[in-house]
Structure formats: C-alpha cells, structure tokens
Amino acid sequence: xxxxxxxxxxxxxxxxxxxxxxxxxxxxxxxxxxxxxxxxxxxxxxxxxxxxxxxxxxxxxxxxxxxxxxxxxxxxxxxxxxxxxxxxxxxxxxxxxxxxxxxxxxxxxxxxxxxxxxxxxxxxxxxxxxxxxxxxxxxxxxxxxxxxxxxxxxxxxxxxxxxxxxxxxxxxxxxxxxxxxxxxxxxxxxxxxxxxxxxxxxxxxxxxxxxxxxxxxxxxxxxxxxxxxxxxxxxxxxxxxxxxxxxxxxxxxxxxxxxxxxxxxxxxxxxxxxxxxxxxxxxxxxxxxxxxxxxxxxxxxxxxxxxxxxxxxxxxxxxxxxxxxxxxxxxxxxxxxxxxxxxxxxxxxxxxxxxxxxxxxxxxxxxxxxxxxxxxxxxxxxxxxxxxxxxxxxxxxxxxxxxxxxxxxxxxxxxxxxxxxxxxxxxxxxxxxxxxxxxxxxxxxxxxxxxxxxxxxxxxxxxxxxxxxxxxxxxxxxxxxxxxxxxxxxxxxxxxxxxxxxxxxxxxxxxxxxxxxxxxxxxxxxxxxxxxxxxxxxxxxxxxxxxxxxxxxxxxxxxxxxxxxx
Length: 566
Fold this sequence. Notes:
five-stranded mixed barrel; 21% strand; five-stranded antiparallel sheet; repeat; alpha+beta; Nucleotidyltransferase, domain 5; differentiation; LOTUS-like; CATH 2.40.50.90; 30% helix
C-alpha cells in the first residue's frame, strides 16, 4: 500500500540521519534534521502518528531509544548494508582536532585507475577540520570590528546583533575555543583580569600603530584641539555622490537670489550641518514652483556600474591534484557546488563581502545603484541583499513584477528574491572570480536512473559543514568530476563507496554526464571560462568618459583574473 511504501522509505531516511549522528539525536533534533534535509516535516499524520516518539517506537529494527540524564536519545540500529558505515562513524574523532595543513604537501593520495576493483584505493589523508561558513565568519568579524569583546559576552552580543544564537556545534565544533582556533588568522584571544578578550587582528594592528606615534606628533596633537571624527561612511567615488549626501536630512542655512527667468527667483542653498568646512554649492529648487514637474527624472546609471560584463570562473584544476573543498550547495551527488578551501581564497571572499556590506548598506550609496526596470533582465550581473549581507548574483529569470530568480556565483544556489533588493554591481567587484565550482561525484551513477531522496539526504549529511579532500578526475562540459573523502575519522570515508554500500549507487569506473547539469547549469550560462580572459586586466571605466565611449569600451575591454592559489 501507499502507506507501507512511505514507511519503508522513511525508515531508510531516519536510519541515514541517525547513523551520521555519532552521539544520537533527540526527537526534536530528528525533526529539525529531517526538515533541513528534506524541506518538509516528518509525515506523522500520513502514517497515523501524533508525535515523533510514537513514530520511532514503530521502528524497532531501525531506532534504539534510551535515556541519558533524563533526555530521550535516538540512535540508529545498523543493518547488514550499513554496519560498515556505522563503524566508521563510531570511530570518528571526538577530541581536539589539529589544524589542517596545506593538503598538497601533507597528503599523498594514489589516484584510482579504471582497472582498480576498489575505487577507494587512496592513502590516508589528514584534513577534515570543521569550517565556519563564510557568512558566519564575516558576522563574527563584523561583531568585533568596532571594539574587542569578552568571550563571556559573545553569545549575548551575537544574539543582539543578528537575532539568533551562535550555535557552533551545528558546524561541527565541540567548543568555542575550537571555533576561535579556526579563526586564528583574524581573531586574537588575550587574557585579562575580566576573562578572555576577543580582539580582531585589524583592530589590534590599528591600536599598535597608534601607540607607535612619535612623541613630537603626540605633543603637537595635545597642543591643538582634536577635530571631531566624522561618522564612518563609504568613500565617495564621484562628485554626484558627495553632492547628493548633502541634500539628505539637512536644514537650509542661507538664501541667495538667482536668475531663473520667469520662474522662482530665490533658491535655498543647503549644506551638511555635520561638516562645518563643507562649501554650499547646490541650489535646492522645488520643481513644482518652476513649471518643470512635467519632466520626470530618470535615474542616471552610475559610470562604475557593471552592465555588459560577466564574472569569470576559477582556473581549471589539474587532473589528479588534491584540493581542500567545502560543499556549499547540493542538489544531488551528480549536481553540487564546492568552494576551494585556501586561506587566500577565503580571505578574498570574506573581504569582498565586508566591503560590499559597508558600501551598499549606506542609504545614499544603495540608492545610487538601484536598478531600473529595463536592467532587470536574465543574464544581468548584479548584487542582492540577503539577511543583511550582499552577494554577487546573476538574474536567471523574471518571475513576476516583484520577484526574480537569481544565481549566486560564489555559493552555487538559485534563489528567489525581491526586485527591490537588487543593485548594480560596482566594477571593482568584478575582479574576484566566481568562487562556486559546479561538480559531480566521480565514477558513480544512481541505481534507479535518478537519485532517490534517501541517497540525496545521505550525501548532504556526509558533506555538511566539513572541509573535505577532493581528488580531481576530469572536467566534462565545464563540470568538475572529483572524488570526495572525509578524513576527520580514524578511517577515511569515501563518498562513492558509502553510496555504493548503502545500495544507492553503482560504481561504474567512468564519468556519466550529469543529467541534472544537462538540464540546467547556471555556471555554464552566466560565468565566463577563465582561459578566455588571456592576460588582459580588469579595467575600470574612466568616470568622466565612460558614458561617451561605452560602445567602444564594450568591444575593447577585457578581463584578467589572478588564479586562486590552490
């Protein structure tokens, strides 16, 4: 019956989730995990149950229930096909993890040959350090950018700023100190009488520079009154930007007669009350008094706005090379996106997100880059705000008068957003290559023609919040086929072997073109291959001449990308 079929499918999914959780899950955590992975709640009512606990009690061959400190814990009961996987999870390291070194120098994997009966004939690799998502790293750094913070106050401060608790365990960390060790390149922990003090390295560097000011300069600064520091605002790149800023929230301070023919002969001159040294040049002339109201003002596109350009991809990885990766988005084992794990690449993406947030979150700058309706079209490179952060995206399709679907070039996901959140991308933000790499798991194919929900769920669990080792096999139609290995356990876990052992995949010894990517590959549609860039540079347009020479510029300007260090 339909209900029996649903129950059998659910048993496989529950077993897969519980096997991946070494310490087990509470019923509430199981509900959350299922919702996160399958994007719908447990089908309790469809099966005639009121609670999750009632459901799992009807799975005695799948779930073991026991109590720990008064809390019910659910653990998986492995069957013949999953005993090996359960043993690997049981052997997973639970103590402190050593920081991962450069994979290319530390590891030496043996590339599997097509004649190999065991495709997982790799040597041991040491990696697997938990990794915070780039957006979470940026949030922590943003939190510390204004001033240092005591570790004891971090949780409350994070909740006040971002409206949610900082749950580091969901990213694979066992303690907050592990999180801080993973961010040692940007956060310093200093011991004080009040406790551990978290200091952003950039903030610490500024403090040291201030302490090293020559004594003569210090005496001069004491003799003269210190000028008031203006509020932090984005650097104005054009005169129009600066002038517009003076028109916002300011009062008229002077009037002067001007010759307007038959129209109003007096105009208000305004300047910013926050800057006493600024000059007043702009006349504020109400249009309704001039007879000019019938001429609608069309927003002028900023000269440094990207209109007819594309991001380019990262340079191709060499065959058989090893690389640290984080899986950012999963559709199936045949369609997912990874991001390269290297200090240089991570820092560049983090700095880009910080700068975009700083610029576009300022109202004057944000309004300047608003996109007119004529520019909201498929293929347009722009940026969008999601949860207070700005991302580089390409418009994939216009859904309605209010919404569009966009492709995030640095994280690989398609997402529906409101048109009002779109902004032109500044030319400066073209330089960093698109960080998301379209991938497919090498040498595997689904046993049933298409990947089952249980197989996709298991693959997501294997990839979740971990730095993995990828072994490059080849590129097919712009898609990277690679083997994935989790080295955070005593025995390395090879994803193609796990899927085979669970009965979800066949290891075929060759790469079958991804059916999902054949149907839709946004990277191939919107991201320019790196080899087409040659040795040309990304040249920002001349702010004065760009409007006059746009046609010529479209034909002659080319892009250059410095390959990310692997």
